[in-house]
Design goal:
Protein name: Alpha/beta fold hydrolase
Low-confidence stretches: 1-8, 29-33, 233-269, 273-287, 474-480
Strand order of the largest sheet: 8-1-2-4-3-5-6-9-10-11-12-24
Oligomer: single chain
Family: Belongs to the ABC transporter superfamily.
Mean pLDDT: 82
Pfam family, one: ABC_tran
GO molecular function, one term: hydrolase activity
Radius of gyration: 40 Å
Organism: Amycolatopsis ultiminotia
Number of strands: 38
Helix content: 25-40%
């Protein structure tokens, strides 16, 4: 039976004990918090017939699925899908809600999935009326819980298109008791045809109040995506044969069990899922193609007008107003949770802000959450979905805490495993709703009046973002440069001074601009695009959330007299770091919007007092919440932490173990031993000492234990026995004295796309030490890289990389430098250069330890040497002394051939070699004087005699030829 090796030292025993405690604690945490699986969810599919629209003989059939919790009656939730999706798009969320006790109804809105009818964009007489009739049917089932007043406990939620439906339904059906709209719009006209310019400054008490000015600029890219999602197929008169029959039931326990009520086709990405468009509205039978697809004629006409003219007529404005939540928000008084995305170029924070103000004015309690996602950034994650569920449950039943006030997420720049850090800032109330208004910090902008050219055809256009790719670009260094481009001559730019400290922008900044047409080529209006960039200390700039504020300024005097307007920039959440600045760019084109094709020139400047008003919303910060189910695990983890602290305290005490008598000695190794699991001993009973100013060569064949010794010296691995002291301090992992050592042991790991100097700066910054202590100039001078230090490392030769690695080890000018095989891969000239580098460094009075197997190089570079073999010390001393201990002698003679013949005649002399006027011989213990006498007797003149100094011979004698 194999023997299990046990820890030999007190420290390793404590470490092993802590590891055992950690394993046991983890097992307890898993056992006590294990998931018993989701509650079973039963589903029932049904097709519900709706009355025909006035003046139409077409009867609409709506495809529905009801999700039943374990117990009914239960509070009910209507869960609406996003544009381009259907009921299957929200299946996971429906199951989550049902598993926590809600009765959930989902359906495919008319024109989508297997439902028939034409898309009216949440028309009150169409989609909104359908939802009210679904409530009739749900309440009639008697499975909806009722409150003390006898009213049904019923709420509505949904994302984007579905979020607008929840608002419209709450404003028209008194049975809705709570709503949670997600990433949706308040005014569809302003969402698709926004105008961020107003002639008079608005009352911006809330943080993201938009201008919502009339006569906006058409958002053609987003609108085109959604129109194509609804025009891919013409309406059929009835659902396909694949539609579920009324009353069909299934049961789902978290895994698919028979027919779960979803349509046979896989659900495509839908609006509200963080991906644009998608879905296949009209999966039913497809008759002849129709350019209007499944849209109503009125919606089709409005889109055609916008897409061709770029402007909205009064009829289109009225249509969009009628289907917008803003038409009913003055009648919404139920508890409302507004969830809006901070990464959303479709429906920005201004839409949620407007809804919050309108519902609060009507007397409804409003809670607002801004999160890091959106149409460009993704749908809510599990924690946010849980908050939505808690809000709905508390609002309907009175149980639990629905939350209150305002919370917004702040995404940091540091990333862990590719994921950016996020913290949440919360306040007791949404600023400007019944309390103090938003603080707006005036920030001075600088820049003269500038001319902005709009080229004919508005081409080329600025590219601020591409719907659906904005979120992808945020995480890709290759795509980011494609966005935020402003063609030369097409933009005016104004900048702030660098900030002295971090400023957290939370909402919509505003600025007063002065705009005029060129009198030589007058135009009655200007279509412009304002963007606010975050500019780093190196000049790089980032457009937060790819957000753009389009503005149309009409009535420009032909003589060039300017018009002053207040521009409301997009709502963002962005920490502007100290040293960064803000840059306002006002351009004439943007790829995502409909821009007039007529060429023009405009003059753009700052109006008097045209400083940038930056919104700031202070609050309490918190990281991600800890689930309640993990509290037991946290308690156990604390116990493990206490054990770890005990071990750390012992290690710290050992780390501060100092021998004052060795304070001036760079390195002392005493009785060092390293045994690995399995019994292999790499180093055994190793002891030696290195004095200041020495260049010590650590020699030995492969497997001698050199690298293991150096790794123990650097604290990378722990000795089994013995100790290492550097300047009197005992070496342990993380010992403070390690900062006095520069090393090149584990490989350099340089980043190839950065310059040599940038790599060194990055390495030094990672150490956390002050930049002024780096001594970049001295290290680079010693390394001798010259101007090459400014080139990218991927262009370096192997020798240059090695010298850069030496420079990295020299940063801070450490008193002891440790190098493992620094000449690997170098050619002879490079080896010669490396020798000079090390000798120059040692000449400064510091100490160098070099591990190598190149004997000749060590002989020429090092002053002292330690020879190891099979983990043990076999010799140490000055290089000259060891080289002379081989027993060989060298004679400088007048006749080398005669000298060689004379020495061969002497008994015991062997290994005779001639080299020019030199003769080398192994005297095998014979005194050199006797050999000289033999040469003289043979008539050979001898000019010089002495030991043959060759380290290689001594080394081979010590370790054996076969090593």
């Amino acid at each position: 039976m194999p023997r299990i090796p046990l820890p030999r030292t007190r420290g390793t025993r404590l470490t092993a004990l802590a590891a055992v405690v950690l394993v046991v604690a983890a097992a307890v945490a898993v056992w006590t918090t294990r998931d018993t699986g989701p509650a079973p969810v039963r589903t029932q599919d049904a097709v519900v017939a709706m009355p025909a629209a006035p003046g139409s003989a077409e009867q609409v059939r709506i495809d529905t699925t009801t999700y039943y919790p374990e117990r009914t009656p239960a509070p009910a939730v209507l869960l609406a899908h996003g544009f381009g999706g259907d009921k299957t798009s929200v299946d996971p969320q429906a199951k989550e809600l049902a598993q926590r006790g809600f009765l959930v109804l989902t359906w495919s809105a008319r024109g989508f999935g297997h439902s028939t009818g034409r898309i009216g964009l949440n028309d009150p007489d169409g989609e909104v009326a359908d939802a009210s009739r679904l409530i009739d049917r749900l309440v009639a089932s008697h499975e909806v819980a009722t409150g003390q007043d006898g009213a049904p406990e019923l709420a509505v939620t949904g994302a984007s298109y579905g979020g607008a439906l929840s608002l419209l339904l709450a404003g028209t059906d008194h049975r809705v008791r709570a709503i949670a709209p997600v990433i949706t719009y308040n005014d569809l006209g302003q969402g698709l045809v926004p105008n961020a310019a107003a002639t008079a400054a608005g009352d911006a008490k809330t943080p993201a109040a938009g201008a919502f000015a009339p006569d906006g600029v058409f958002k053609k890219s987003w609108a085109g995506i959604f129109f194509s999602a609804g025009s891919g197929a013409a309406a059929s008169g009835a659902p396909s044969s694949e539609a579920p029959e009324a009353g069909q039931e299934t049961t789902d326990n978290g895994d698919t069990a028979g027919n779960s009520g979803t349509s046979p086709q896989a659900a495509a990405p839908a609006e509200g899922s963080g991906q644009p468009g998608g879905g296949q509205p009209g999966r039913a039978q497809q008759p002849a193609a129709d350019p209007c697809g499944r849209f109503t004629p009125a919606v089709c006409q409005a889109y055609t007008e916008l897409a061709t003219a770029g402007k909205a007529s009064p009829q289109t404005v009225e249509l969009l107003r009628r289907v917008s939540p803003s038409s009913v928000t003055n009648r919404i008084t139920v508890p409302t949770l507004l969830v809006q995305g901070e990464s959303d170029t479709l429906f920005g924070l201004d839409q949620s802000d407007a809804t919050a103000r309108q519902i609060a004015a009507a007397g409804g309690p409003v809670r607002t959450i801004w999160y890091t996602g959106g149409h460009d950034g993704g749908s809510p994650g599990p924690q946010l979905r849980a908050k939505i569920g808690d809000f709905l449950w508390s609002s309907l039943t009175g149980e639990g805490e629905p939350g209150r006030g305002f919370a917004y997420d702040v995404q940091g720049t540091l990333r862990a495993n590719g994921t950016p850090s996020v913290r949440t800032v919360s306040t007791d109330a949404y600023p400007g709703l019944g309390g103090a208004g938003t603080e707006r910090r005036p920030t001075a902008l600088a820049g003269p009046q500038q001319e902005v050219v709009r080229p004919a055809g508005a081409n080329p256009s600025a590219v601020s973002g591409i719907p659906g790719l904005n979120g992808l670009a945020a995480g890709s260094s290759r795509l980011t440069p494609l966005f935020g481009s402003d063609p030369p001559g097409q933009s005016a730019q104004f900048g702030t001074a660098p900030f002295d400290s971090q400023v957290l922008v939370a909402g919509s900044s505003t600025v007063r601009l002065r705009i005029a047409t060129d009198p030589a080529h007058p135009l009655p209006e200007a279509v412009l695009f304002a963007k606010l960039y975050d500019v780093g200390t190196d000049g790089s700039r980032v457009l937060p959330a790819n957000a753009v504020a389009p503005l149309r300024v009409s009535g420009l005097p032909a003589d060039g007299t300017p018009v002053d307007v207040t521009v409301t920039l997009p709502g963002i959440v962005r920490p502007i770091e100290a040293g960064h600045s803000l840059r306002l760019v006002v351009g004439s084109t943007d790829q995502s919007y409909s821009v007039p094709e007529q060429p023009g020139v405009f003059r753009v400047g700052l109006a008097p007092g045209g400083s940038l008003a930056v919104p700031v919303v202070p609050g309490a910060s918190a990281g991600a919440p800890v689930p309640a189910g993990q509290l037991i695990g946290i308690g156990v983890t604390l116990l493990v932490g206490i054990a770890a602290l005990v071990v750390a305290a012992i290690r710290r005490r050992r780390a501060h173990d100092v021998d004052p008598d060795l304070a001036g000695t760079p390195l002392v190794i005493s009785g060092l031993r390293k045994q690995y699991p399995g019994g292999f001993v790499a180093v055994q009973d190793l002891s030696f000492r290195v004095e200041p100013g020495q260049v010590l060569g650590l020699l030995g064949p492969n497997g001698a234990g050199k690298t293991t010794t150096l790794r123990m010296l650097m604290g990378l691995i722990t000795p089994t026995e013995g100790e290492i002291r550097v300047f009197g301090h005992r070496i342990t992992p993380g010992a403070p004295v390690l900062s006095r050592i520069g090393s090149f042991v584990e490989g350099s790991g340089f980043l190839p796309h950065l310059s040599g100097k940038a790599n060194l700066e990055l390495y030094w910054a990672a150490t956390g030490r002050p930049a002024e202590r780096a001594h970049f100039t001295e290290a680079l001078e010693i390394a001798g890289l010259g101007d090459a230090v400014h080139r990218r490392v991927k262009t370096y030769s192997q020798g240059m990389r090695q010298r850069l690695a030496i420079a990295q080890a020299m940063l801070g000018l450490p008193e002891l430098m440790v190098l493992d095989e620094p000449t690997n891969g170098l050619d002879p000239p490079q080896i010669h250069q490396m020798r000079e580098v090390l000798q120059r460094y040692a000449a400064t009075g510091r100490t160098v330890v070099v591990s190598s197997h190149l004997l000749a190089e060590v002989e020429q570079t090092c002053s002292h040497v330690v020879v190891m073999h099979r983990g043990t010390l076999v010799a140490s001393g000055e290089v000259g002394e060891l080289a002379a201990s081989s027993g060989e002698a060298t004679f400088r003679v007048g006749d080398p051939a005669a000298a060689a013949a004379a020495l061969k005649a002497v008994g015991g002399v062997s290994d005779i070699e001639t080299e020019g006027d030199l003769v080398h011989a192994n005297l095998d213990g014979m005194p050199r004087a006797e050999a000289v006498a033999a040469l003289v007797r043979a008539g050979v003149p001898v000019e010089q005699a002495g030991p043959r100094r060759r380290l290689e011979d001594t080394f081979l004698q010590l370790v054996g030829e076969d090593s």
